[in-house]
């Protein structure tokens, strides 16, 4: 009967959840260099303030970092502190022509909630908050503290979480609702870097939205010879307004091999035309025809986390330099210095110099740990899924930010991951199921 009461309360609270999610999604909270004085731009600050306002309305105690790097909302009493970490920044929407609706004017259609941040990570974060709120509305007595920690720079350089770690109390256990169920126990090392060389080609262009997204397109000046070679290579493109748009398929860099890299295709076409460049030669010889940059690294993989992943996310040819922006996901048992050494030596063969941009070390939480077994039992109890097992991932989540933390939901097995893509959405029924899983997890931690 207790579960029935909780689930009935969830249905009563769900319309309010949707309204509050609308408030968050409507804020275009991607990184902006502006003169606002906030570390990552005014839109992200607005999203942080709006989330804390929502939490305060729900009865949580709230706090915002005076510098604007993070905030948190807390409920409960006692020494034990469970941290739930989510981020309020999003990736840019990219080509708006590929969206069926405004990415920041959320809509529900065919049982799906559309909007940038609906799956990554505003929707899941708010779902976890409403899961706890629903328990409390149903008479649940919380015997420990739950702190929802809100980050603001997850999609870029993670300059937010070190500030939290420096200033605040650390949870003893935690999870982040920023991936998929049943649970992510291992995350690859994340290396972002630039390969830079002198521009001797005379070409100038740029493309791509983020290191960690496979570029869905690149737009360049219209060119009959380029159009001809693109046709010969069977590469999709469009011609409009005096421009050529080379078409790719955007996916998250952790599964780069499942996408189609428009920048790679453009550089390949230029090489075939004889318009050679350092970057073009590098791409043609090491990335075209290879899913995992095997000419650079050979076969890099382990049993815990799979293969090394390599993504060329952004490019710029300016008056002076060719700049390639690279995102790599490194298996947990490999040393990053060895990977850097291989890339540096290979890049030098093309006149490109390696420059580190960011690095996040890998994590591994034992499968028999209390954290993993508790969360898995919550997932299994709600779903009845006794087949799915904990996953090793190439994604980078806030599970890396604190000790004894894993990624837990909120995408259900078999449902699509739409993060970073046009028409990002989350399935309404999946969101409700995720809330039930989080409610059960909060119950199980109540010892």
Automatic annotation (TrEMBL):
GO BP field: L-arginine biosynthetic process; proteolysis
EC number: 3.4.13.-
Keyword flag Protease: yes
PROSITE patterns: ARGE_DAPE_CPG2_1
Pfam hit, one: Peptidase_M20
Keywords from the named record: Dipeptidase, Hydrolase, Metal-binding, Metalloprotease, Protease, Zinc
Cofactors demanded by this protein: Zn(2+)
PANTHER family per the UniProt record, alphabetical: ACETYLORNITHINE DEACETYLASE (PTHR43808), N-ACETYL-L-CITRULLINE DEACETYLASE (PTHR43808:SF31)
UniProt record similarity statement: Belongs to the peptidase M20A family.
Protein name, entry field: Sapep family Mn(2+)-dependent dipeptidase
Organism, as annotated: Fusobacterium hominis
């Amino acid at each position: 009967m207790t579960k029935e009461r909780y689930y009935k309360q969830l249905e009563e609270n769900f319309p309010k959840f949707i309204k509050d999610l609308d408030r968050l999604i409507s804020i275009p909270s991607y990184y902006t260099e502006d003169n606002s004085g906030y570390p990552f731009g005014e839109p992200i600050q607005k999203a942080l303030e709006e989330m804390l306002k929502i939490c305060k309305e729900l009865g949580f105690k709230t706090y915002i970092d005076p510098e604007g790097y993070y905030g948190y909302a807390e409920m409960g009493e006692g020494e034990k502190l469970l941290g739930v970490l989510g981020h309020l920044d999003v990736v840019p929407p990219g080509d708006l022509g590929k969206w069926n609706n405004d990415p920041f004017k959320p809509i529900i259609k065919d049982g799906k909630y559309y909007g940038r941040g609906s799956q990554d990570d505003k929707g899941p974060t708010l779902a976890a908050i409403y899961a706890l709120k629903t328990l409390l509305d149903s008479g649940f007595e919380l015997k420990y503290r739950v702190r929802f920690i809100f980050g603001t720079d997850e999609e870029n350089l993670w300059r937010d979480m070190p500030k939290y770690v420096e200033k605040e109390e650390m949870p003893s256990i935690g999870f982040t609702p920023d991936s998929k169920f049943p649970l992510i126990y291992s995350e690859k090392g994340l290396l972002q870097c630039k390969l830079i060389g002198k521009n001797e080609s005379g070409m100038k262009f740029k493309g791509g939205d983020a290191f960690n997204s496979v570029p869905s397109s690149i737009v360049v000046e219209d060119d009959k010879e380029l159009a001809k070679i693109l046709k010969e290579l069977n590469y999709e493109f469009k011609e409009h307004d005096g421009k050529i748009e080379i078409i790719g398929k955007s996916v998250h860099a952790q599964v780069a091999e499942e996408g189609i890299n428009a920048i790679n295709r453009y550089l390949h076409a230029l090489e075939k035309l004889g318009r050679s460049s350092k970057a073009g030669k590098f791409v043609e010889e090491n990335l075209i025809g290879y899913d995992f940059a095997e000419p650079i690294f050979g076969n890099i993989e382990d049993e815990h986390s799979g293969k090394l992943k390599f993504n060329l996310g952004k490019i710029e040819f300016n008056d002076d330099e060719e700049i390639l922006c690279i995102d790599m996901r490194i298996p947990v048992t490999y040393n990053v210095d060895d990977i850097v050494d291989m890339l540096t030596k290979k890049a030098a063969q093309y006149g490109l110099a390696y420059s580190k941009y960011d690095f996040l070390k890998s994590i591994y939480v034992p499968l028999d740990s209390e954290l993993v077994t508790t969360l898995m039992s919550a997932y299994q109890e709600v779903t009845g899924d006794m087949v799915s097992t904990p996953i090793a991932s190439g994604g980078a989540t806030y599970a890396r930010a604190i000790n004894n933390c894993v990624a837990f939901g909120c995408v259900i097995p078999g449902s699509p991951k739409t993060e970073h893509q046009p028409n990002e959405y989350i399935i309404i029924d999946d969101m409700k199921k995720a809330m039930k899983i989080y409610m059960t997890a909060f119950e199980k931690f109540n010892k």
